[in-house]
Design a protein that fits this description.
The protein is of the alpha+beta class. About 55% of the residues lie in helices and about 10% in strands.
C-alpha cells in the first residue's frame, strides 16, 4: 500500500471505481461513502456488529466500463469499542494489492483468482443474504427482477396454488419491490398468516432485509397484537418481517408490550433484527430482565449481542449506573462477569 491510500474507499477511488457498501450481517443496509469513510477512520463504531465482526458487501464498477460489476464480500473484526480493526483492514488490502495491483477491474488470471481466495477476510454470504442483496441492487438500478419473480408474485397474489417450485430469489424480488406494488402489498397484508409455513418463513426472511410499506407494517403489527392468534411460528415470522420498521412508533409500542411475555425465540429476534425498538430505558430494562430468566447460555449470548450495538450500549451502561436493573438481571450479569474474568 502506498502512503496516500489508507482505506478501502480510497483504494477503490484510486482504481477509478464507483462503489456502494452494504452491511450484510443483520439486516441488509446501505452504508453511504461518507459513513463508511468515517467507520474506516475509526471516527465512529461500526453500527451493525455481528459476533464482533463487520460483514460487508462492496459493489463496484470502473467508471469507464460501467457494464461490468464486481462484488467483494469482506468480514473484518471489531475491537472492544466496536471500532473497525485498522490492522485487519490494512492486511485485507495488502492481499488485494498483492493479487491485483491497482487494476481492480481487469480480467483475472487463474493465479490471481487463487491468490484472492487465500484472503483471510473473505466470507461466504448465505443464500438469503445473496438473494436480498441481488434484489436490492436490481431495484436500485431499475433493472428487471430475476426469472423467478413472476411465479413468486403469482403465488403471493393468489393466482396460482403450487408453491413448492417458487424460487427464493423470486420472494426476495417481490419483497424488494413492494413499494411499487400496492396490490401485492395489500394481498400479502391480508394473507400473510395463511401462506404455507415454508413460504411464509422465506417471505419473512426476505421482508426483514427490505423496506416494508406502511400498509403491510400495520397489518403485521395488528397480527402480532391479536390475542386470538396463538400460532407462535406466525408471530415469529411477522416480527421478523417488521425489522425495517423497528424505529416506527407502532412497532416500538408493540415490542414494549411483547417483551414481558416474549419467549426465547421472540427475544432473540428483537435483539438480532429489531434492536432500535429496544432503545428506550424501560423497554431495555425489561428486556434484560426477561433474558436473565432464560438459561445461562442464551442470556450470555443475547446480552453480549445487545451491549455490542452502539445504539444500545450507552443505554445499558446508563441502566447499570443508575441501578435500574432487576435483581435477576444483576445476578445474571454478575455471573457473566465472573465467568469472563475466570
Amino acid at each position: 500500500m502506498t502512503q496516500s491510500i489508507s482505506t478501502i474507499g480510497e483504494f477503490l477511488q484510486a482504481g477509478q471505481a464507483d462503489y456502494q457498501v452494504y452491511d450484510m450481517g443483520r439486516c441488509l443496509r446501505e452504508l453511504d461513502p461518507e459513513a463508511f469513510d468515517s467507520i474506516e477512520r475509526q471516527q465512529q463504531p461500526y453500527p451493525y456488529p455481528i459476533r464482533k465482526q463487520a460483514q460487508l458487501a462492496v459493489l463496484f464498477k470502473h467508471r469507464q466500463q460501467p457494464e461490468n460489476d464486481y462484488l467483494w464480500f469482506i468480514q473484518l473484526p471489531l475491537d472492544e469499542r466496536g471500532l473497525l480493526s485498522v490492522g485487519a483492514r490494512d492486511h485485507y488490502l495488502e492481499f488485494v494489492v498483492s493479487a491485483l495491483g491497482h487494476e481492480i477491474t481487469g480480467s483475472l488470471t487463474n493465479e490471481q483468482e487463487e491468490q484472492l481466495k487465500q484472503n483471510p477476510y473473505l466470507f461466504t454470504p448465505t443464500e438469503t443474504q445473496r438473494a436480498a442483496l441481488h434484489a436490492r441492487i436490481a431495484v436500485n438500478r431499475r433493472a428487471a427482477p430475476s426469472i423467478y419473480f413472476d411465479d413468486a408474485e403469482a403465488f403471493l397474489s393468489g393466482q396460482q396454488n403450487d408453491w413448492k417450485n417458487i424460487g427464493m430469489q423470486g420472494l426476495h424480488d417481490c419483497a424488494a419491490r413492494l413499494q411499487q406494488l400496492p396490490q401485492l402489498t395489500a394481498t400479502i397484508a391480508e394473507c400473510f398468516d395463511q401462506y404455507p409455513a415454508p413460504v411464509r418463513n422465506q417471505l419473512a426472511a426476505a421482508l426483514e432485509h427490505q423496506d416494508v410499506p406502511a400498509r403491510l407494517r400495520d397489518a403485521l403489527v395488528a397480527m402480532m397484537d391479536d390475542e386470538q392468534s396463538t400460532d407462535p411460528a406466525v408471530k415469529r415470522d411477522a416480527l421478523r418481517a417488521l425489522a425495517s420498521c423497528a424505529e416506527h412508533g407502532s412497532v416500538k409500542k408493540l415490542v414494549r408490550q411483547l417483551v414481558p411475555k416474549a419467549d426465547a425465540d421472540l427475544l432473540t429476534i428483537m435483539s438480532a433484527r429489531l434492536w432500535p425498538a429496544l432503545a428506550e430505558h424501560d423497554t431495555l430494562a425489561q428486556y434484560i430482565h426477561q433474558i436473565a430468566l432464560l438459561d445461562t447460555v442464551l442470556f450470555d449470548a443475547l446480552f453480549q449481542d445487545v451491549i455490542s450495538l452502539p445504539q444500545l450500549r450507552p443505554l445499558v451502561l446508563s441502566l447499570l449506573a443508575q441501578g435500574q436493573l432487576s435483581d435477576d438481571s444483576l445476578q445474571a450479569l454478575n455471573r457473566l462477569k465472573q465467568n469472563v474474568q475466570s
